[in-house]
Amino acid sequence: MTHNLDSTATAVVTHDVHWIPITESRPPYGAKCFVIDKAQGIAYVRLYHPNDGWTHWHPMFTFAKE
């Protein structure tokens, strides 16, 4: 995984992990995941509900197996 600071130097971003558009693949209803509204640009860890207005989502991360 490659990551570095964004152009404002206020966030660390990755270049090989991307948000999943909700129009392509919806998370399970009521499942905890990362959600974001692309226009607002603020991500949250929330339970997914279809009518909340999110545009993209991502599954929760896990630790690598040792």
The ordered H/E elements are: EEEEEE
Uncertain runs: none
Q: Average pLDDT across residues?
A: 89
Question: How does the overall form come out from the CA principal axes?
Answer: globular
What does this structure look like?
This protein has 66 residues and is mainly β. It has one domain (18-66). The chain is 0% helix and 32% strand. It contains no helices and six strands. It has strands at residues 3-5, 12-14, 20-21, 32-36, 43-47, 56-58. The strands form two sheets. Strands 3-6-4-5 form a four-stranded antiparallel β-sheet, with no helix packed on it. Strand 4 (32-36) and strand 5 (43-47) form a beta hairpin. The model has no long low-confidence stretch (mean pLDDT 89).
Structure characteristics:
mainly beta, 66 residues, single chain
What is the gist of this entry?
The chain has 66 residues and is mainly β.
